[in-house]
Amino acid sequence: MTLTELENAKARSLEEIGAANDAAAVEALRVKYVGRNGLIPALVKGMKDVPKEERPAFGKAVQAWRAEAEAALQAKGAGAKGQGEAVDADLTMPGRWRSLGVKHPLTRVIEESAAIFGKLGFTVADGPELENRFNNFTALNTPPHHPSMDRSDTFWFGDDCLLRTQTSPVQIRTMMANKPPVRVICPGRTFRRDTTDATHSANFHQIEGLYVDCKDKPVSLADLKSVLAYFAKEMMGAGVTVRFRPHFFPFTEPSVEVDFSCHVCKGKGCNVCKQSGWIEVAGAGMVDPRVFKFVGYDPEEVSGYAFGFGVERIAMIKYGIPDIRWLYENDVRFLSQLG
User: Fold this and answer.
1) What is this structure's pTM?
2) CA 142 to mean position of chain CA atoms
3) Ordered domains of the chain (ranges, CATH)
4) Residues 6+ apart with CB under 8 A from 113
Protein backbone atom coordinates (compact mmCIF):
# COMPACT_ATOMS: atom_id res chain seq x y z
CA MET A 1 0.00 0.00 0.00
CA THR A 2 1.38 3.41 -1.01
CA LEU A 3 1.14 6.53 1.12
CA THR A 4 -1.61 7.87 -1.11
CA GLU A 5 -3.61 4.66 -0.77
CA LEU A 6 -3.03 4.72 2.97
CA GLU A 7 -4.39 8.26 3.26
CA ASN A 8 -7.46 7.32 1.22
CA ALA A 9 -8.09 4.24 3.39
CA LYS A 10 -7.69 6.37 6.50
CA ALA A 11 -10.25 8.87 5.25
CA ARG A 12 -12.74 6.09 4.46
CA SER A 13 -12.28 4.51 7.89
CA LEU A 14 -12.88 7.79 9.73
CA GLU A 15 -15.92 8.41 7.58
CA GLU A 16 -17.32 4.95 8.39
CA ILE A 17 -16.70 5.42 12.12
CA GLY A 18 -18.38 8.79 12.03
CA ALA A 19 -21.43 7.29 10.33
CA ALA A 20 -21.77 4.39 12.81
CA ASN A 21 -25.00 4.81 14.78
CA ASP A 22 -25.08 1.89 17.23
CA ALA A 23 -22.78 -0.10 19.49
CA ALA A 24 -22.70 -3.16 17.21
CA ALA A 25 -21.56 -1.10 14.22
CA VAL A 26 -18.85 0.63 16.26
CA GLU A 27 -17.57 -2.72 17.55
CA ALA A 28 -17.50 -4.14 14.00
CA LEU A 29 -15.41 -1.18 12.82
CA ARG A 30 -13.07 -1.54 15.80
CA VAL A 31 -12.44 -5.16 14.86
CA LYS A 32 -12.05 -4.24 11.18
CA TYR A 33 -9.47 -1.50 11.66
CA VAL A 34 -7.69 -1.76 15.04
CA GLY A 35 -8.55 -5.26 16.24
CA ARG A 36 -5.88 -7.96 16.54
CA ASN A 37 -6.45 -9.05 12.94
CA GLY A 38 -7.54 -5.63 11.72
CA LEU A 39 -6.19 -3.60 8.80
CA ILE A 40 -3.91 -1.27 10.78
CA PRO A 41 -2.11 -4.06 12.74
CA ALA A 42 -1.68 -5.89 9.41
CA LEU A 43 0.05 -2.80 7.97
CA VAL A 44 2.35 -2.64 10.98
CA LYS A 45 3.28 -6.32 10.52
CA GLY A 46 3.93 -5.68 6.81
CA MET A 47 6.36 -2.80 7.38
CA LYS A 48 9.24 -5.10 6.43
CA ASP A 49 7.94 -5.16 2.86
CA VAL A 50 7.91 -1.35 2.54
CA PRO A 51 10.96 0.08 0.75
CA LYS A 52 13.59 1.14 3.28
CA GLU A 53 13.58 4.79 2.25
CA GLU A 54 9.75 5.00 2.61
CA ARG A 55 9.45 3.22 6.00
CA PRO A 56 9.79 6.31 8.28
CA ALA A 57 7.04 8.25 6.52
CA PHE A 58 4.88 5.16 6.06
CA GLY A 59 5.24 4.12 9.71
CA LYS A 60 4.43 7.63 10.92
CA ALA A 61 1.29 7.70 8.73
CA VAL A 62 0.14 4.29 10.03
CA GLN A 63 0.57 5.34 13.66
CA ALA A 64 -1.28 8.58 13.02
CA TRP A 65 -4.11 6.60 11.43
CA ARG A 66 -4.25 4.28 14.46
CA ALA A 67 -4.39 7.21 16.89
CA GLU A 68 -7.15 8.99 14.97
CA ALA A 69 -9.17 5.78 14.50
CA GLU A 70 -8.95 4.88 18.19
CA ALA A 71 -9.92 8.41 19.21
CA ALA A 72 -12.89 8.34 16.86
CA LEU A 73 -13.96 4.92 18.17
CA GLN A 74 -13.63 6.06 21.76
CA ALA A 75 -15.74 9.10 20.99
CA LYS A 76 -18.35 6.73 19.62
CA GLY A 77 -18.33 4.70 22.83
CA ALA A 78 -16.07 1.85 21.76
CA GLY A 79 -13.87 2.15 24.87
CA ALA A 80 -10.40 3.37 25.62
CA LYS A 81 -7.90 2.63 22.86
CA GLY A 82 -10.55 0.79 20.91
CA GLN A 83 -10.48 -2.27 23.22
CA GLY A 84 -13.78 -1.84 25.07
CA GLU A 85 -17.37 -2.22 24.00
CA ALA A 86 -20.12 0.27 23.51
CA VAL A 87 -21.89 1.15 26.74
CA ASP A 88 -25.64 1.62 26.52
CA ALA A 89 -26.32 2.31 30.20
CA ASP A 90 -26.25 5.01 32.82
CA LEU A 91 -23.04 4.23 34.69
CA THR A 92 -24.02 6.56 37.53
CA MET A 93 -26.87 4.25 38.54
CA PRO A 94 -26.23 1.73 41.34
CA GLY A 95 -25.60 -1.87 40.25
CA ARG A 96 -28.20 -4.62 40.45
CA TRP A 97 -28.15 -6.54 43.71
CA ARG A 98 -27.98 -10.30 43.24
CA SER A 99 -29.08 -12.37 46.19
CA LEU A 100 -26.84 -15.07 47.59
CA GLY A 101 -27.44 -18.61 46.36
CA VAL A 102 -28.55 -21.49 48.57
CA LYS A 103 -27.04 -24.90 49.16
CA HIS A 104 -28.48 -27.80 47.20
CA PRO A 105 -30.87 -29.90 49.33
CA LEU A 106 -28.63 -32.96 48.98
CA THR A 107 -25.65 -30.98 50.22
CA ARG A 108 -27.70 -29.69 53.12
CA VAL A 109 -28.82 -33.18 54.17
CA ILE A 110 -25.26 -34.55 53.95
CA GLU A 111 -23.81 -31.68 55.97
CA GLU A 112 -26.58 -31.83 58.59
CA SER A 113 -26.14 -35.60 58.90
CA ALA A 114 -22.38 -35.29 59.32
CA ALA A 115 -22.90 -32.67 62.03
CA ILE A 116 -25.48 -34.82 63.87
CA PHE A 117 -23.38 -37.98 63.85
CA GLY A 118 -20.31 -35.92 64.62
CA LYS A 119 -21.85 -35.11 68.01
CA LEU A 120 -21.94 -38.87 68.67
CA GLY A 121 -18.27 -39.37 67.83
CA PHE A 122 -18.60 -40.47 64.21
CA THR A 123 -16.04 -39.23 61.70
CA VAL A 124 -16.52 -38.98 57.92
CA ALA A 125 -14.82 -41.57 55.71
CA ASP A 126 -14.55 -41.36 51.94
CA GLY A 127 -13.67 -43.78 49.15
CA PRO A 128 -13.58 -44.14 45.36
CA GLU A 129 -16.72 -44.37 43.26
CA LEU A 130 -15.03 -46.94 40.99
CA GLU A 131 -14.77 -50.14 43.02
CA ASN A 132 -13.74 -53.78 42.71
CA ARG A 133 -15.86 -56.88 43.18
CA PHE A 134 -14.33 -57.81 46.54
CA ASN A 135 -15.04 -54.50 48.31
CA ASN A 136 -18.49 -53.99 46.80
CA PHE A 137 -19.83 -57.54 47.02
CA THR A 138 -17.59 -60.33 48.31
CA ALA A 139 -16.44 -58.69 51.54
CA LEU A 140 -20.05 -57.74 52.25
CA ASN A 141 -21.03 -61.42 52.24
CA THR A 142 -22.98 -61.11 48.99
CA PRO A 143 -23.54 -64.53 47.38
CA PRO A 144 -22.41 -64.95 43.73
CA HIS A 145 -25.99 -65.48 42.56
CA HIS A 146 -27.33 -62.29 44.17
CA PRO A 147 -29.40 -60.19 41.67
CA SER A 148 -27.45 -57.02 42.48
CA MET A 149 -24.39 -58.52 40.78
CA ASP A 150 -26.20 -58.89 37.47
CA ARG A 151 -25.26 -56.52 34.66
CA SER A 152 -28.89 -55.46 34.40
CA ASP A 153 -28.65 -53.99 37.91
CA THR A 154 -25.04 -52.78 38.17
CA PHE A 155 -22.70 -50.74 35.96
CA TRP A 156 -19.78 -53.09 35.29
CA PHE A 157 -16.50 -52.32 33.52
CA GLY A 158 -15.07 -55.77 32.91
CA ASP A 159 -15.32 -58.57 35.45
CA ASP A 160 -13.75 -56.88 38.46
CA CYS A 161 -14.47 -53.17 38.08
CA LEU A 162 -17.79 -51.42 38.67
CA LEU A 163 -19.44 -48.21 39.79
CA ARG A 164 -20.17 -48.81 43.46
CA THR A 165 -23.78 -49.71 44.21
CA GLN A 166 -23.56 -48.51 47.81
CA THR A 167 -21.11 -46.72 50.09
CA SER A 168 -20.56 -49.93 52.08
CA PRO A 169 -17.19 -50.51 50.33
CA VAL A 170 -15.92 -47.48 52.24
CA GLN A 171 -16.72 -49.35 55.45
CA ILE A 172 -14.73 -52.34 54.17
CA ARG A 173 -11.76 -50.14 53.27
CA THR A 174 -11.93 -48.42 56.65
CA MET A 175 -11.93 -51.68 58.60
CA MET A 176 -9.09 -53.12 56.51
CA ALA A 177 -7.00 -50.02 57.19
CA ASN A 178 -7.80 -49.60 60.90
CA LYS A 179 -8.05 -51.65 64.06
CA PRO A 180 -11.14 -51.36 66.28
CA PRO A 181 -12.72 -49.22 67.53
CA VAL A 182 -14.13 -47.83 64.27
CA ARG A 183 -16.92 -45.27 64.21
CA VAL A 184 -17.53 -43.68 60.80
CA ILE A 185 -20.22 -42.46 58.44
CA CYS A 186 -19.69 -42.80 54.70
CA PRO A 187 -21.59 -40.27 52.58
CA GLY A 188 -21.23 -40.40 48.83
CA ARG A 189 -22.62 -40.99 45.38
CA THR A 190 -23.68 -44.46 44.24
CA PHE A 191 -24.95 -45.98 41.02
CA ARG A 192 -27.55 -48.58 40.05
CA ARG A 193 -29.49 -49.31 36.89
CA ASP A 194 -32.77 -48.16 38.40
CA THR A 195 -34.91 -45.42 36.84
CA THR A 196 -38.29 -47.07 37.20
CA ASP A 197 -40.25 -44.13 38.62
CA ALA A 198 -40.13 -40.65 40.14
CA THR A 199 -38.48 -41.97 43.33
CA HIS A 200 -35.57 -43.81 41.69
CA SER A 201 -32.48 -42.63 39.84
CA ALA A 202 -29.44 -44.35 38.33
CA ASN A 203 -27.33 -41.87 40.27
CA PHE A 204 -28.11 -41.28 43.94
CA HIS A 205 -26.45 -40.63 47.30
CA GLN A 206 -26.18 -42.67 50.46
CA ILE A 207 -24.97 -42.18 53.99
CA GLU A 208 -23.90 -45.37 55.71
CA GLY A 209 -22.68 -45.71 59.27
CA LEU A 210 -20.47 -48.24 61.01
CA TYR A 211 -19.53 -48.72 64.65
CA VAL A 212 -17.24 -51.58 65.68
CA ASP A 213 -15.69 -52.05 69.10
CA CYS A 214 -13.86 -54.71 71.09
CA LYS A 215 -15.58 -57.29 73.28
CA ASP A 216 -14.86 -55.34 76.46
CA LYS A 217 -17.18 -52.66 75.03
CA PRO A 218 -19.88 -54.77 73.33
CA VAL A 219 -22.14 -53.13 70.77
CA SER A 220 -25.83 -54.08 70.54
CA LEU A 221 -29.05 -53.32 68.67
CA ALA A 222 -30.02 -51.10 71.60
CA ASP A 223 -27.02 -48.88 70.78
CA LEU A 224 -28.07 -48.79 67.13
CA LYS A 225 -31.64 -47.83 67.96
CA SER A 226 -30.55 -45.05 70.30
CA VAL A 227 -28.25 -43.58 67.65
CA LEU A 228 -30.93 -43.66 64.93
CA ALA A 229 -33.55 -42.26 67.31
CA TYR A 230 -31.24 -39.35 68.08
CA PHE A 231 -30.60 -38.79 64.35
CA ALA A 232 -34.33 -38.87 63.58
CA LYS A 233 -35.15 -36.23 66.19
CA GLU A 234 -32.28 -33.98 65.12
CA MET A 235 -33.05 -34.25 61.41
CA MET A 236 -36.86 -34.40 61.40
CA GLY A 237 -37.95 -32.85 64.68
CA ALA A 238 -38.37 -33.70 68.35
CA GLY A 239 -41.65 -35.59 67.88
CA VAL A 240 -40.27 -38.27 65.54
CA THR A 241 -39.90 -41.84 66.80
CA VAL A 242 -38.14 -44.89 65.34
CA ARG A 243 -39.51 -48.35 64.53
CA PHE A 244 -37.51 -51.48 63.67
CA ARG A 245 -38.91 -54.24 61.44
CA PRO A 246 -37.19 -57.61 60.81
CA HIS A 247 -35.51 -57.85 57.42
CA PHE A 248 -32.61 -59.51 55.64
CA PHE A 249 -29.32 -58.09 54.37
CA PRO A 250 -26.33 -60.28 53.49
CA PHE A 251 -23.92 -58.14 55.49
CA THR A 252 -25.87 -57.84 58.76
CA GLU A 253 -27.40 -60.40 61.11
CA PRO A 254 -29.86 -59.73 62.59
CA SER A 255 -31.07 -57.17 60.06
CA VAL A 256 -33.84 -54.60 60.35
CA GLU A 257 -35.67 -52.03 58.29
CA VAL A 258 -35.86 -48.68 60.05
CA ASP A 259 -38.97 -46.48 59.89
CA PHE A 260 -39.40 -42.94 61.15
CA SER A 261 -42.82 -41.81 62.32
CA CYS A 262 -44.24 -39.37 59.81
CA HIS A 263 -43.17 -35.86 60.80
CA VAL A 264 -45.98 -34.34 58.74
CA CYS A 265 -49.02 -36.03 60.27
CA LYS A 266 -47.37 -37.06 63.56
CA GLY A 267 -48.19 -40.71 62.87
CA LYS A 268 -51.89 -40.22 62.11
CA GLY A 269 -51.65 -41.04 58.40
CA CYS A 270 -51.31 -38.78 55.37
CA ASN A 271 -50.27 -38.83 51.70
CA VAL A 272 -46.60 -38.51 52.60
CA CYS A 273 -46.60 -41.74 54.65
CA LYS A 274 -49.29 -43.40 52.49
CA GLN A 275 -51.71 -43.34 55.44
CA SER A 276 -49.48 -45.67 57.49
CA GLY A 277 -48.06 -43.13 59.91
CA TRP A 278 -44.54 -44.43 59.18
CA ILE A 279 -41.88 -43.67 56.55
CA GLU A 280 -39.30 -46.29 55.59
CA VAL A 281 -35.92 -44.61 55.83
CA ALA A 282 -33.00 -46.99 56.35
CA GLY A 283 -31.66 -50.51 56.51
CA ALA A 284 -29.52 -51.56 59.46
CA GLY A 285 -28.37 -54.41 61.67
CA MET A 286 -25.50 -56.03 63.50
CA VAL A 287 -22.45 -56.65 61.30
CA ASP A 288 -22.38 -60.27 60.14
CA PRO A 289 -19.39 -62.22 61.60
CA ARG A 290 -18.41 -63.31 58.09
CA VAL A 291 -17.89 -59.66 57.13
CA PHE A 292 -15.46 -59.32 60.05
CA LYS A 293 -13.54 -62.33 58.76
CA PHE A 294 -13.22 -60.80 55.29
CA VAL A 295 -11.58 -57.65 56.69
CA GLY A 296 -9.29 -59.49 59.10
CA TYR A 297 -11.22 -58.93 62.34
CA ASP A 298 -11.83 -61.74 64.81
CA PRO A 299 -15.63 -62.09 65.19
CA GLU A 300 -15.06 -63.43 68.72
CA GLU A 301 -13.23 -60.25 69.72
CA VAL A 302 -15.38 -57.52 68.13
CA SER A 303 -19.01 -56.57 67.61
CA GLY A 304 -20.65 -53.76 65.72
CA TYR A 305 -23.62 -52.37 63.86
CA ALA A 306 -24.10 -50.77 60.48
CA PHE A 307 -26.85 -48.68 58.90
CA GLY A 308 -27.51 -46.89 55.64
CA PHE A 309 -30.06 -44.52 54.19
CA GLY A 310 -30.62 -42.60 50.98
CA VAL A 311 -29.87 -38.90 51.05
CA GLU A 312 -32.44 -38.21 48.34
CA ARG A 313 -35.13 -39.96 50.38
CA ILE A 314 -34.42 -37.83 53.43
CA ALA A 315 -34.36 -34.67 51.29
CA MET A 316 -37.65 -35.55 49.57
CA ILE A 317 -39.34 -36.21 52.91
CA LYS A 318 -37.82 -33.23 54.70
CA TYR A 319 -38.51 -30.68 51.95
CA GLY A 320 -41.67 -32.17 50.40
CA ILE A 321 -40.11 -32.97 47.01
CA PRO A 322 -42.37 -35.32 44.99
CA ASP A 323 -39.97 -36.23 42.15
CA ILE A 324 -36.32 -37.26 42.60
CA ARG A 325 -35.48 -35.90 39.15
CA TRP A 326 -36.01 -32.36 40.41
CA LEU A 327 -32.84 -32.79 42.45
CA TYR A 328 -30.75 -33.21 39.30
CA GLU A 329 -32.28 -30.78 36.80
CA ASN A 330 -30.48 -27.70 38.20
CA ASP A 331 -33.62 -25.60 37.83
CA VAL A 332 -33.01 -22.36 39.72
CA ARG A 333 -36.74 -21.88 40.16
CA PHE A 334 -36.87 -25.10 42.19
CA LEU A 335 -33.65 -24.60 44.13
CA SER A 336 -34.49 -20.99 45.08
CA GLN A 337 -37.64 -22.16 46.90
CA LEU A 338 -35.48 -24.00 49.43
CA GLY A 339 -33.69 -20.84 50.57
Assistant:
1) 0.67
2) 30
3) 3-82 (no CATH), 105-338 (3.30.930.10)
4) 185, 187, 207, 231, 235, 311, 314
